[in-house]
Write a structure and sequence with these properties.
Elements lengths: L12 H37 L3 H13 L28 H11 L11 E6 L10 H19 L2 E5 L13 H11 L5 E5 L3 E3 L16 E5 L1 H5 L7 E9 L2 H11 L8 H11 L10 H11 L1 H4 L3 E4 L6 E2 L7 H14 L12 H9 L10 E3 L16 H20 L4 E2 L10 E2 L8
Parallel strand pairs: 1-2, 1-3, 5-7, 8-9
Antiparallel strand pairs: 3-6, 4-9, 5-6, 10-11
Helix pairs in contact: 4-13
């Protein structure tokens, strides 16, 4: 007879524990299954009552985050059928509309006061100049490099957004459309296609312009005392994304070729600006005209920048680039941290360190090849083709060296775009 200890019907302590464990697992599955069934029934009932309620609730929750660019169901200015992106159709209450949009997009609108969209472009047709398209590509690359380093968006346009607004007037429909397309950006930064960033580390001093809505390069004395056509340059400007700017664009472009009064503005400008070279109304003369004739309305909010090369004339700049390179290398030989290799993402940090050691001879921020016309090749007759070509090669390679350095290479000759050399460790000490 088997002993009690060996009986198959005897429940040992170990076997009892296992049984209880299996029982708990089974109960757990039953509970989860029941809960799932209950939720499914509730979901089905709610869907029958209001098939859109759950989807709407989810959409509202998602719209609060907008981390991945989702669009909220709430209406915005984009849903207004009267909204027009075109010049000649005024925008009203833009500050309020933009503010409402930013509230719906807290993630996208974060730190919006420092957000910049750089806008540039060229003609829609192929360049007549044999090397024009090559130059436009390099000029665009230069702007892409600058924006990548400083974290700004860039939009390149080669479509004519208004059939009558050609030449220097073509940029204003683009600028207005960019303001509407990018309500998250505080500033729209127009840079002519023939302008080159020649200090890739320099960061726009936006805090300086906190009380202003338009920044242009110029000289107040030449505007208000000399009334000179060359007292400012409208090829590079920074404009705040606000209602004031929308109204300025309307007044500014009222002297443009789409206006019924266009024919009268050329003679009016020519009579006021004795040094104006051509009879047609142009955008630069139009802005100076507004500053002179409507200073109370516009002047207080326009910053005339001349403390650095916001936009510098190329002819007085390109021949200094080799000496500037030499000066920067002398600083690096003395300051060890500036010889350190670093990631491109921290270029601004090293630029701020370098600022402490710079004196008079410093990189120009933007070098503008006014009159060279790289696409058409129809340059100002006071320059030669070779002077424009060599100048652009120097400026572009000078800027490219600042970019290539973080990739470990350098153009040894500013007139040779094809050849680069590897940078040795601890350069330029070796």
């Amino acid at each position: 007879m088997a002993s009690l200890e060996s009986s198959p019907f005897q429940n040992s302590p170990k076997r009892s524990v296992l049984y209880k464990a299996y029982s708990l697992i089974a109960d757990g599955f039953l509970f989860v299954g029941g809960a799932f069934l209950a939720i499914s029934l509730i979901w089905a009932l709610l869907s029958c009552v209001n098939p859109y309620s759950i989807e709407t609730a989810i959409a509202k929750q998602t719209s609060k985050l907008n981390v991945n660019g989702s669009d909220p169901p709430e209406p915005t200015f984009y849903d207004d059928p009267e909204l027009s992106y075109s010049i000649g159709n005024p925008i009203e209450n833009w500050d309020e509309k933009r503010e409402q949009w930013l509230r719906l997009y807290p993630a996208i609108g974060a730190d919006s006061k420092r957000k910049v969209v750089l806008v540039t472009g060229s003609a829609p047709s192929v360049c007549e100049n044999a090397v024009g398209d090559h130059l436009l590509l390099r000029l665009f690359k230069n702007k892409v490099d600058y924006c990548r380093i400083h974290g700004c968006e860039i939009f390149y346009n080669n479509a004519l957004l208004h059939p009558k607004m050609t030449g220097f007037w073509a940029k204003y429909p683009i600028v207005k459309a960019a303001m509407l397309a990018h309500p998250e950006a505080e500033w729209v930064y127009w840079v002519d296609s023939d302008a080159v960033f020649t200090d890739m580390e320099f960061k726009l001093p936006l805090e300086r312009y906190v009380n202003h809505n338009l920044v242009v390069h110029g000289w107040s004395q030449l505007i208000y005392e000399k009334q000179s056509w060359t007292s400012l340059n409208a090829g590079v400007f920074l404009i705040r994304n606000c209602q004031w700017s929308m109204e300025l664009l309307d007044s500014w472009t009222s002297m443009g070729p789409q206006s019924p009064d266009y024919e009268k503005w050329g003679p009016t400008q020519k009579a006021l600006f004795k040094d104006k070279l051509f009879p047609e109304s142009d955008d630069q003369s139009a802005l100076i005209y507004l500053l002179l004739k409507e200073k109370e309305k516009w002047g207080e909010k326009i910053y005339i920048e001349n403390e650095f090369n916001f936009e510098g004339y190329w002819l007085g700049t390109v021949d200094k680039l080799e000496n500037i390179t030499k000066r920067y290398r002398e600083i690096e030989q003395k300051v060890g941290i500036l010889r350190r290799r670093y990631a491109e993402k921290v270029s601004e940090f090293y630029g701020e360190i370098r600022e402490k050691y710079l004196e008079d001879l410093r990189r120009p921020f933007v070098t503008h090849f006014t009159g060279c016309e790289p696409c058409s090749g129809d340059h100002n007759p006071t320059y030669t083709r070779e002077a424009c070509w060599n100048g652009m090669q120097k400026a572009l390679n000078f800027a490219d060296n600042q970019v290539l350095r973080t990739f470990g290479f350098v153009h040894l000759d500013l007139l040779n775009s094809s050849f680069v050399s590897p940078l040795p460790f601890d350069f330029p000490m070796v």
